[in-house]
Design goal:
Largest sheet: 9 strands, mixed
Number of strands: 37
Radius of gyration: 25 Å
Shape: globular
Helix content: 10-25%
């Protein structure tokens, strides 16, 4: 479903808070009218399920924000401003309800965004309240990001992640909300009786630990329990209808969405978006992306210290003696510099896009192996959920050894600015250095950015040297979160720990083990209990390391914003909520108030599109550089340049900026869109003063492409000086694929 009027209304809105209320009211009315963790050693046993134990609904929606002139979310790298599109971002919604008691349900949203956000979730829930009353709530609705670092930025509610996007970007947030709501409504309307199955497998060479020196700080006895310093288990929840036909899946595996580096400026869903597209097109090869009924969600897990750059990190320093050598182990430096140390993906010698394809394909194939294995076990039992808000700035609790511990107001350490081997930092910051006096200049500068930390704050975060005391900076609005979402979802013996942050490998293992033990000890589940982690979700609370990893202060430790007791605090609070997942549980836990709304205070410095103009004697959509003559073959790239217009004029949600058309029976039939990884859409502003631009569209011909006559069509929208938006198209000359 394409909503041009909805997108245009959002783009024209001038006030960050009012647009949410007005646009959501418009969207709800539009919809109402349109639609009347477990260790790998624990094996999954085979079995069968009674027909239709659950009601299952699946949906998918386009959440792609402005694909040009907007900073991308993840690397926090100002020059990474998007210039086009590789693959559209999507939200995938999964609703599971108890067939005998449909009010007991969970809504799991897996979205190709970097992380879940408080403001986005608040707006979604408000709209769902208007549509469905109290059916979908804070307790049973989870917004989980795939942690793609190649998506559109500017949608998070707190100020710190808005810095590189020049503040809040209304269009990005609106696209995420509208596409997610579309996915949820489709899922709700498609609820049918069905069954759920569970399985797992081991996947090697698809992730790697990017902070191995920090991992080594964990106790030797604990490390000896595991073969790898990253989790290699792929856990799959498969959905089928009452006839036993597969209808969708959720696949959990930890690997950062950094297959595409910070020099990439084409919007994409990274490796998990690629895996989802691969599976959905494998099941429904004739369906256009986003129009599929089979929905495959590839979910992020304890991702904190994982990387898809499986070849390792190397120095890229031409002319230096360390060029081409592995980065220094403890600090990931090259000649004491951070900037030159870069991770290399499996397709490094070809392109970042090839690495992205390979890591996505590895997850797809592992998931397919599980789904097509007849030994998957049946999921059976109650559907339950629990949620509370937790103030992580002052949470005091008792550790298992009887001592008191507490969390701290948010602060980021020096190694945060050092970045990672996926995206190195700059200046003189390096990972794993607990010294705060490398450069006295920064001691002066940081006082102008955030308040100086008190002695209490310094002691609370020790041994982290505080660079940004963000928890004490509330002007013009909160820089970092203080209150986070604590949430668990249960479907039978399967429990999802929905986490408001990025847990490292060992932190995730401790979290899963502790909660599984508690579920069994409380009698909520028996030894079939299977626990997974999903995140970063709902609120972005940055990283969660073990206390031992925290002491090393690599990037992940420096980004554990609530201090060294963060992991233990989460284990304590989640454990307290376990009884509410019991089958006979009827109460709800007490909770503090939700975090204060920030969107109405949001600042946006992104300028709007003023006007589009074609060059003199040209029209929008005219071909400037046509396809080359001759016959094209598999592996060749077809390229066309058009007179363009700014794609921010119309996001074309549920639509496309391009098509590859094949001539069949004297008609042109669409065979590819901008959601296919074989196509790219690149926009270039040629004159800001005149408002002129070009669009380059490329299609790399895939294996299996039928011989025939094809063309490339550009779908654009131009803006006049008076503000009206006009659609246009442009066609290349026909060309032949042999």
């Amino acid at each position: 479903m394409y909503l041009p009027s909805f997108s245009t209304a959002l783009a024209d809105s001038a006030f960050p808070f009012n647009w949410i209320h007005d646009a959501m009211r418009l969207f709800v009315m539009y919809l109402a009218a349109f639609f009347t963790a477990i260790p790998p050693a624990i094996e999954v046993q085979g079995g069968s399920n009674s027909s239709g134990e659950y009601l299952i609904g699946l949906g998918i929606g386009d959440v792609t924000g402005p694909v040009v002139e907007t900073n991308m979310m993840g690397y926090a790298f100002l020059p990474q401003t998007d210039t086009g599109l590789h693959m559209r971002q999507r939200s995938r919604a999964f609703i599971i309800a108890d067939a005998s008691n449909p009010s007991e349900r969970v809504l799991f949203i897996n979205s190709d965004i970097c992380m879940g956000d408080t403001g986005i979730r608040r707006t979604i829930l408000s709209s769902l309240q208007s549509l469905y009353g109290d059916l979908y709530t804070h307790a049973n609705t989870a917004l989980v990001g795939t942690h793609a670092h190649s998506g559109v930025g500017g949608y998070l509610e707190n100020l710190l992640p808005q810095v590189t996007s020049l503040g809040y970007v209304n269009e990005t947030a609106a696209a995420i909300v509208s596409g997610t709501l579309k996915a949820i409504v489709d899922a709700h309307n498609s609820l049918v009786p069905g069954n759920i199955k569970l399985g797992n497998t081991t996947l090697l060479n698809a992730n790697r630990n990017r902070s191995p020196s920090a991992y080594l700080a964990n106790p030797e006895w604990e490390r000896a329990m595991y073969e790898e310093n990253q989790d290699t288990t792929v856990t799959v929840l498969g959905f089928e209808n009452a006839d036993g036909d597969a209808t969708g899946l959720l696949s959990f595996f930890p690997v950062h969405g950094t297959s595409l580096y910070e020099n990439n400026t084409l919007v994409s869903g990274d490796n998990k978006g690629m895996a989802a597209w691969m599976y959905e097109s494998y099941i429904e090869p004739s369906s256009m992306p986003g129009n599929n009924s089979f929905v495959a969600g590839f979910v992020q897990s304890n991702v904190g210290d994982t990387t898809p750059n499986t070849l390792g990190a190397y120095c890229e320093s031409p002319g230096k003696p360390w060029d081409g050598q592995p980065c220094e182990f403890e600090h990931s430096t090259c000649g004491n510099r951070t900037e030159d140390c870069h991770g290399r993906g499996p397709g490094f010698h070809i392109s970042d896009f090839e690495s992205n394809r390979m890591i996505g394909q590895a997850q797809f194939e592992a998931t397919r192996t599980v789904m097509e294995n007849s030994n998957m076990t049946a999921v059976s039992g109650s559907v339950k959920s629990v949620h509370v808000y937790l103030d992580m700035t002052t949470y005091t609790f008792t550790l298992p050894n009887g001592t008191l511990a507490r969390t701290c107001p948010a602060a980021l350490g020096y190694s945060f600015a050092g970045g990672t081997t996926d995206g190195p930092g700059a200046f003189d910051f390096i990972q794993g250095d607990n010294s705060s006096s490398q450069n006295p200049f920064w001691e002066v500068v940081k006082r102008f950015i955030t308040p100086a930390p008190s002695e209490e704050q310094i002691a609370c975060h020790y041994p982290k040297p505080i660079l940004l005391n963000s928890g004490y900076n509330h002007r013009p609005y909160d820089w970092s979160p203080g209150t986070v979402d604590v949430q668990m979802l249960r479907v039978g013996q399967f429990v999802i720990l929905v986490m408001p942050g990025e847990l490292t490998t060992m932190a995730g293992r401790r979290m899963r083990d502790a909660l599984r033990a508690r579920l069994i000890a409380e009698g909520v589940l028996d030894d079939r209990a299977y626990v997974v982690i999903a995140g970063p979700a709902n609120t972005y609370g940055h990283y969660v390391t073990t206390p031992e990893e925290y002491s090393v202060q690599r990037y992940e430790g420096a980004s554990t914003i609530f201090g060294p007791a963060t992991l233990d605090a989460y284990i304590n609070k989640y454990s307290e909520l376990v009884p509410y997942l019991a089958t006979n549980s009827t109460g709800v836990p007490s909770s503090i108030a939700p975090p204060p709304e920030q969107t109405s205070k949001a600042i946006s410095l992104q300028t709007s599109v003023l006007v589009d103009n074609p060059p003199i004697f040209k029209h929008f959509g005219d071909v400037l550089a046509d396809v080359e003559s001759g016959i094209y073959h598999v592996g060749d790239t077809v390229a066309v340049r058009f007179v363009g217009a700014n794609p921010r004029n119309n996001l074309r949600l549920e639509g496309t900026f391009l098509t590859v058309d094949r001539q069949m029976n004297d008609e042109w039939v669409v065979v590819r869109t901008d959601s296919h990884p074989s196509t790219t859409y690149q926009w270039n502003r040629t004159s800001k003063v005149l408002g002129t631009s070009t669009v380059d569209i490329r299609w790399t011909i895939e294996d299996g492409t039928p011989a025939g006559t094809y063309r490339i069509t550009y779908h654009g929208d131009s803006k006049s000086l008076l503000g009206s938006i006009s659609a246009f198209t442009g066609d290349s000359s026909p060309f032949t694929v042999g």
